[in-house]
Write a sequence for this structure.
């Protein structure tokens, strides 16, 4: 139903132990709010002055035994150094959940931005290049995460008799979908 709900769902879909998520202080407040609302502590890493994106050279020094994921933001559609961020995450067995709210359809040297990390989150708010007036999406290549996301965004309901866990009302309305 919106990008913030999509961020929360993306974090919760990985069913990580509580801990820290490394992110950037230079983003809309929804990035940090989603980390906190999902039950994690945001840890800020400074940005590169040229791109305004998280500085990969400063990420590893912020990693602790409590770090669970890295959440970079493609600020204003400028791609992060995603290859470097993914390499750091792989070295430390961390997830990469990208706030790509400003990056719908953006390409980089790694190809489509939304195909690289564990999950990319889009916003379809009216201020975005592609919008549905309000909305959001989570993109992942992992079928198990996709299934968990489907449950999370529909109150955790699997069928008429089964609720797997507490979920969100994260569905896009028909009216907003039609607008898109």
């Amino acid at each position: 139903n919106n990008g913030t709900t999509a961020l929360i769902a993306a974090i919760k879909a990985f069913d990580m132990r509580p801990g820290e998520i490394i992110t950037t202080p230079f983003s809309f407040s929804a990035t940090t709010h989603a980390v906190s609302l999902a039950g994690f502590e945001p840890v800020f890493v400074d940005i590169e002055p040229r791109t305004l994106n998280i500085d990969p050279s400063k990420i590893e020094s912020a990693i602790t035994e409590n770090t669970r994921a890295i959440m970079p933001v493609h600020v204003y559609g400028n791609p992060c150094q995603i290859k470097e961020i993914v390499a750091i995450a792989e070295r430390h067995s961390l997830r990469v959940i990208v706030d790509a709210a400003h990056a719908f359809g953006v390409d980089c040297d790694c190809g489509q931005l939304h195909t690289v990390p564990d999950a990319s989150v889009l916003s379809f708010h009216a201020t975005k290049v592609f919008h549905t007036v309000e909305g959001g999406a989570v993109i992942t290549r992992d079928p198990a995460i996709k299934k968990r996301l489907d449950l999370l965004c529909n109150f955790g309901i699997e069928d008429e008799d089964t609720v797997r866990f507490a979920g969100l009302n994260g569905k896009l309305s028909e009216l907003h979908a039609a607008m898109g």
